[in-house]
Amino acid sequence: MSASMRKNVLAEINSSSGYSGIEEHSAPLHSFLEYATSLIFPILFVLNVHWAGSLLYELDLLWLIGLAIPLGVLGGDLVSGIVHWAADTYCSVDTPVVGPSLVKPFRMHHVYPRDICTHNLVETVGNVCILAFPLLSLCLFLMWLIPESGLLAFVVICVALTSAATVATNQFHKWAHQEKVSGFARRLQRMRLVLEPTHHKLHHTDPFNMHYCITNGWLNPLLNKIKFFRRLEATLAFFGIRTANSVNSTQHRQ
Ligand SMILES: [Zn+2]
Ligand SMILES: [Zn+2]
Q1: Which terminus of the chain has fewer CB atoms gathered within 10 Å of its CB, N or C?
Q2: Distance CA 193, CA 234 (A)
Q3: Residue 250 pLDDT greater than 50, yes or no
Q4: How confident is the model at residue 30, as a pLDDT?
Q5: Minimal CA–CA distance to 143: which of 8, 16, 222, 48?
Q6: Is the separation of the CB atoms in 211 and 203 below 8 Å?
Q7: Ligand 1 centre and the CA of 87: distance in Å?
Q8: Pick the residue with more confidence: 97 or 186?
Q9: Where are the beta strands (DSSP E) in the chain?
């Protein structure tokens, strides 16, 4: 068997097992940011919730937290769906900045879905912590600027909870692909509080263009029913922003 044939056979075996067999690590600066913001994120989250929650308590509006929790969880699921859909549908792995950091991991995930299981906690959640850091810092700044606003405090709690759900998303996504998970994770999956493996399998099944939400997938049935992502694609196409597939097919025809 020639070297190239052996390489193809190995790639096929790895592909069917879901693992690429390749260990990829972030560049040093990216890795530093992943670790630093993964440590800072819980502190920023607690500060935001404590500060905003104290103000709501003083204003007799603490009941709003009962509304903020489901909104935050649904917000996280929606953000996960939109980011996932955008990375699957637009640009390419060669697009500057977002190509290697966002598009490539999602595209490779379709070929080797179990590679995510080889990532440690920081590699799993770090990218989202990098994005959440400026957002939660801005929330603290706004609360310092407008310290008496109950509306702002409510919005800040919603944003903090949405950020936490989004940070946890890749961990839930990882559990959905693991051959074995802890009893705690399995219980959460059975209760549908986090992404359930058979539900997520629908995204990894032909035609591969639905069920993008990966926090707990609660929004998938609704978004599928109203053809949310197809309508979004049609709207963007109207403004001349074409999907990667339509760009590729045009290039092939030329
Ligand atoms: Zn995908
Ligand atoms: Zn997946």
Answers
A1: C
A2: 32
A3: no
A4: 87
A5: 48
A6: yes
A7: 8
A8: 186
A9: none
CA terminus-to-terminus distance, the chain = 37
Residue 237 included in any domain: no
Phi first, then psi, for residue 75 (nearest 5°) are -60, -45
Q: What is the pLDDT of residue 249?
A: 44
Mind listing the pLDDT tens digit for each residue in 131-156? 999 999 999 999 999 999 999 999 99
Q: Kindly report the pTM of this predicted structure.
A: 0.86
Supply the pLDDT for residue 65. 96
pLDDT in tens, 234-248: 999 999 999 987 654
Is residue 21 assigned to a domain? no
Distance 110 CA to ligand 2 centre (A): 7
Distance 2 CA to ligand 1 centre (A): 34
How far is it, in rounded angstroms, from Cα 8 to Cα 211? 31
In this structure, which ligand is nearest to the CA of 81? 1
Q: Kindly state whether residue 245 falls inside one of the protein's structural domains.
A: no
- In the chain, the number of structural domains is 1
Q: Identity (one letter) of the amino acid at 153?
A: A
Q: From the CA of 51, how far away is ligand 1's center (Å)?
A: 37
The answer to whether 225 and 235 have CB atoms below 8 angstroms apart is no
Q: What is the C-alpha radius of gyration for the chain, rounded to an integer number of angstroms?
A: 20
